Amino acid sequence: MAIRRLGLTRDQLAKFLVEHEQIRQFELLFSAVDELQTTSLDALTFDVGSALAGVNKLAGVVAQLAQDGAIEASNAVAIAQAAERALNAVSDLAMVGATLPPKTPVRRTIGAWHDMDRQTVPAAFTPMRVQCKNTDIERGIWRDSVDLFVVNDAGVYNIEFSAQVDRNKGTDSEIWFWLAIDGVDVPESASVLRVRGSDGESVAAWNWMVELAANASVSIMWTADDVDTYLETFAAAAPVPAIPSMILTITQEA
Question: How does pLDDT run across 53-106, given as a tens digit for each residue?
């Protein structure tokens, strides 16, 4: 239950708090006093020593201020009750040295891979599974021997890729990418990119947000309308690093 505000000015606080830091910590203490019963220790940010010093001095001052008419008697009672609760809470913190255990970082499920080989289709419109043979990160997601990417836990996952597309023939061509889950093509997941003529390097890059069951597998599928369109890789040429044919990342979002 919330209590009424203190209604005290900093000049009135200065009558019993001799240092500016004590005044600041005292104000912060009372702004959070209602939360002390439900807030975990790691959410408390005030300095225990300064707050405890202020609360210890409060009891006698509240009565004096009430007599002087600086605050109403009902407010004085509420403040004194709040001070008692605050004193108990702060004292408990002081008994343990107000030392809070460090938070354990959340381990994020993430996988990242890339491939440094040219990838081709054996014939026009033949569906192919994208290869990503080089592992960069695998935490809760792993690649099997046939380029299926398996998640350990159920959840919502963001699947992102970028493919370096190239062509060595003068006419235009089209290349498609889509998503498959557990070997089944995902409806309405495909996109198409038109490659313009010979040496028409392009990058296909997009993502899908999908819900996966535990141990589900995902794969990126692709095909082209011509065997002369492929996923290409380029060696490093200073100052530019090498260019992978495919980069894939999978992260759990929820």
Answer: 655 666 566 566 656 665 566 665 666 666 666 666 656 655 555 455 666 666
27 — phi, psi (to 5°)?
Answer: -65, -45
Cα 126 to Cα 121: distance, rounded to the nearest angstrom: 6
Domains (range + CATH), the chain: 10-95 (no CATH), 110-252 (2.60.120.40)
**Alpha-carbon gap, residue 157 to 198, rounded angstroms:** 36
Residue 205: per-residue pLDDT: 96
